[in-house]
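Dissemination and training. As part of the outreach component of the grant, students in the summer workshop were shown how a complex can be specified as a set of sequence lines and then modelled as a single object. The example used during the hands-on session is reproduced here so that future cohorts can follow it. Participants entered these lines:
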Amino acid sequence: MKNFENMMKPHFTNKHLLGIEGLKEANITALLNLADEKVEQSRRDIKKTNELEGRTQINLFFEASTRTQASFEIAGKRLGADVMNMAVAHSSIKKGETLIDTAATLNAMQPDLLVIRHHSAGAVELLSQKVNCAVINAGDGRHEHPTQALLDALTIRRNKGKLARLTIAICGDVLHSRVARSNIILLNIMGARVRLIAPPTLLPADAEKMGCEVFHNMEDGLKGVDIVMMLRLQTERMQGAFIPSAREYHQFYGLTEKKLSYANEDALVMHPGPMNRGVEIDSVVADSAKSLIREQVEMGVAVRMAVLESLSNNWLSKNNGGV
Amino acid sequence: MSKHKIFYNARLIDPVEMTDSIGGIYIGDGKVLDIGGHIDRNYDAKIAVEYVDVKRQILAPGLVDMRVFMNGVGNQTLKNTGESAAAGGVTSLLSMPNSTPIVEDIALVEYINGRSKKVSGVNLYTSAALTQGLAGEQMAEIGLLKKAGAIAFTDGRKSVQNALLFKRLLEYANSHQALIIHDVEDEDLAGDGVMNEGLYASRLGLPSKPKIAETIMLERDLALASLLKAKYHVSQISCVESLNAVKRAKHENTPITAGVSINNLTLNEFDIGEYRSFLRLEPPLRSDDDRMAMVEGIKNGDIDVIVSSHDPQDPDGKRHPFADAAVGAVGLETLLAAALRLYHSDGVDLPTLWRALSYNPAQILELDAGRLKAGSPADFIIVDPEHSWKVERTELKSQSSNTPFENRILQGKVLATYIDGRKIFELGN
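and obtained this result:
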């Protein structure tokens, strides 16, 4: 009976998590359900379990990251894996080794889980073809950041009880954002209505064809919105090439209490961090009761635990001739 | 409150109905109350009014000049610009941001707008920089400056060379419904040229600018405006090839408009004569074929706007060999008289002329101006189109007197200028 129930439960059966694109609603729901359990686990006094005992997880970051790397490290350790961080920005790549050679070297060390962040779109997928273990995309260029989209979805689902038919506005530098891209795809799969609010210079081409409604001003864009997702604006993009100035950006696109008041009364605010207070978001909003920003960090660990555990199981069953 | 007035027996020019007919205008409280052929000496206004016989002179909307440079933004400059404008029949004007300081700051826009009408006496609107420091490298604060009251964005005499930046500017400005006005010149092709490329430049031995330097930049802009469906106004075109590009873009329904300087409509490269530095202008004076094409463009509406390109230069800056002399010329006071050359000699009728001098620029800048109808501000001028006068530098109101029409006889003179129904200029006073 237990087995039958398990068979009927939606599963996440992929070998890698390279992006949200290509996932089905059932895959995502399975990951979110498992992540819900991991939230409970993480809130216990004794947090560590042994699902990944004996497994080796390598965090391979070609691009500097503190938060995401720490989140993956904690997630792996909480499940009992041996976690090792490699900051490639300072190592062999500087000595001229190609990406594929790096992959071959790492593969020879027999890892089970490889968490990769790279500054070039598609690099993680390329690496996944060259190694013999589960690969998790922790952000590739402007392409995807699937665990961020999953943690955002988990945060929304836990606060609103659902994703379908919610209206979610993603505001800011969509053009350079892999977070936005993964979120747009995921939210569309889950049946949410997605809006993009940004100056035209910070939107990708044909944004409206990605399943979004596009707005160039917050007042119109935020009307009737349940969730306001703010994006980070990189400092180097504030000085005249894409937008005139941080001051002007804040005036027209920064989330203030006034602009938030255009959204639904029970609207909630999210931000993938790190925030530029006073540029894309006011402190009053970021620190208000409507803000889910800290909860997103907590959900990040849970979602990454769910992903690590699922992929590890998928490889185990494959190696044993299952699935 | 000024007394209600009736101006009758006037030659009314309507640039919308395209009529040139006898009638009158009834004004009060700064507004036009009624206008048309039915207004004459016997018009019953039902209250006490003053009657003015216009004696069959032209009574037409005040001119709207989209391209006026000011050296500064101080009271003296505003006052002097206003006096020149009033004497030339210009009741609304757009100042360029290329002053010292550059108009690219919110506080400065508010400062100018707060007193421009009071000090200058005319409707003086300000544009603001399109790029920071007019350097063509980074966007200016278009959204905030528009909120502060800048009604258009331009780098004035300068062209944005970087196509990527210009594309983003069009996109960004469009999302704020902000108008971009652009001078078109490819700096590499223009090089250090000081006059039109051709035989005459070769004979004078002056470095010259080819027409393609203008057209290639214009074609780029039009392609981008078409791609982005963005509002765009080319400040000044000067040659046949540019006119053809504008025609093509309009034919394809790209939402663009075009202007031409009065200098390129009335003068050609031969007027430079023997190195007359007052005719060192931007764009340079072209061949007479080009000039005639510009006139044709006005006649059939392909060119929307005539500007004075009023650009006062210190006389010392003009007392140099041609190639070293400062660029630009004053034009507010001679704009109408020079434009009437098109009426006297080139077969352009008066409503067509006023369409380009008042109605179209007001439409492009979204001003309640440029046309006289019930309810609109009583900004109008009375003009004797036949009055001949010699342009004497010392007679001009402008502090600088670098006019390209020096010592020429022009035909047509503004007799009086009214703003909000109040007379701010009268010939002889």
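The radius of gyration of chain B is 21 Å. Students were then asked to discuss how this feature might be tested experimentally.
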